[in-house]
């Protein structure tokens, strides 16, 4: 029989104390880091909140608070967003451009994500790198390059709304590819293979199994595309020709220094609300996606394929 001799109490305490002290240090709240983070958040949000506040100013001043009112949204007969044709046109152009970019870039990006995920070969890595290039390219370089392309190479495409739409689709596809491909890699090929083993054709396996599993990520990607298109200034400015293709960011840049009323504040607030709502929906869908990642073929209704 082997006798096990316990170590002295002093040795055991000395051995365990570093671990316990490390755990105690890990449980402490990082006050310095939290303070710096909240100071940065306040520094970033306070100017935005001030601009939003003065969009509800009852008077014409953009620096002196004169009471709360919705005058600059719809109450004023001449200077509000609803009554001013130039402000209304800029908002309409931004909404139309964002929606069209969403409708075009989302299916193209989803198809590219499927193809790049299943592509095996030496050229696949290069293609993946090229797909991520628009995300790494500075926006000023992207805007100037697209301007030169449309004015010297693709002269059949007129500058204005058409060129803006193509430019937004160009840099938005990468967002869709990154988000949808990440979901594809987390899903794997097991569900689709199981559906094929149950008798489903390749097209039906994609339609009944893969597309429902990808739907939340596709929706989240579409919302991010819409928000990024609504907020874009550089590409829209390079490819704009006249007042008919002015978007909200271009209007804000050209008139924020000279506008005599808080109507531009109201226009900026509407743009901010649209972008925040789109990003919030994307975050909620991705959060639900992480919680419900344990779907089975029974949940998708493909047991009888």
- The assigned CATH architecture of the domain at 92-253 and 272-300 is Orthogonal Bundle
| Form type | globular
Number of strand elements? 0
Whole-angstrom Rg: 27 Å
Task: State the oligomer.
Answer: single chain
Task: Write up what this structure looks like.
The chain is mostly helical. The protein has a domain at 92-253 and 272-300: MetI-like fold (Orthogonal Bundle), CATH 1.10.3720.10. It has helices spanning 9-27, 31-54, 71-75, 85-118, 122-136, 139-153, 161-187, 190-197, 202-231, 234-238, 248-255, 263-291, 297-300. Helix 7 (161-187) crosses helix 9 (202-231). The termini are far apart. Residues 296-305 have low confidence and may be disordered.
How is this structure best summarized?
The chain is mainly α. Helix content is 73%, strand content 0%.
Highlighted features:
mainly alpha; MetI-like fold; 73% helix
Secondary structure elements and pairings:
Blueprint: H1 9-27, H2 31-54, H3 71-75, H4 85-118, H5 122-136, H6 139-153, H7 161-187, H8 190-197, H9 202-231, H10 234-238, H11 248-255, H12 263-291, H13 297-300
Helix pairs in contact: 2-12, 4-7, 4-9, 5-7, 7-9, 8-9, 9-12, 11-12
């Amino acid at each position: 029989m082997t006798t096990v001799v316990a170590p002295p109490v002093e040795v055991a305490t000395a051995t365990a104390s570093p671990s316990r002290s490390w755990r105690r240090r890990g449980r402490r709240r990082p006050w310095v880091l939290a303070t710096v983070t909240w100071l940065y958040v306040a520094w970033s949000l306070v100017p935005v909140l001030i601009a939003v506040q003065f969009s509800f100013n009852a008077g014409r001043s953009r620096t002196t608070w004169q009471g709360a009112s919705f005058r600059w949204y719809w109450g004023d007969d001449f200077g509000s967003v609803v009554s001013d044709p130039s402000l209304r046109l800029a908002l309409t152009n931004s909404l139309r451009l964002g929606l069209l970019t969403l409708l075009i870039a989302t299916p193209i990006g989803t198809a590219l994500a499927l193809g790049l995920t299943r592509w095996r070969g030496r050229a696949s890595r290069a293609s993946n790198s090229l797909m991520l290039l628009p995300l790494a390219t500075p926006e000023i370089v992207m805007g100037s390059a697209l301007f030169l392309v449309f004015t010297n190479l693709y002269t059949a495409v007129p500058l204005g709304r058409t060129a803006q739409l193509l430019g937004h689709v160009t840099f938005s596809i990468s967002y869709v590819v990154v988000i949808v491909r990440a979901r594809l890699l987390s899903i794997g090929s097991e569900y689709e293979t199981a559906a094929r083993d149950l008798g489903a054709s390749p097209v039906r396996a994609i339609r009944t199994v893969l597309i429902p599993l990808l739907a939340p990520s596709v929706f989240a990607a579409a919302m991010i595309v819409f928000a990024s298109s609504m907020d874009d200034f550089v590409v829209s400015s390079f490819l704009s020709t006249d007042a008919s293709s002015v978007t909200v960011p271009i209007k804000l840049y050209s008139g924020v220094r000279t506008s005599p009323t808080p109507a531009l504040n109201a226009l900026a607030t509407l743009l901010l609300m649209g972008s925040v709502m789109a990003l919030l929906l994307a975050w909620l869908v991705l959060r639900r996606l992480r919680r419900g990642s344990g779907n089975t073929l029974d949940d998708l209704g493909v047991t009888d394929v």
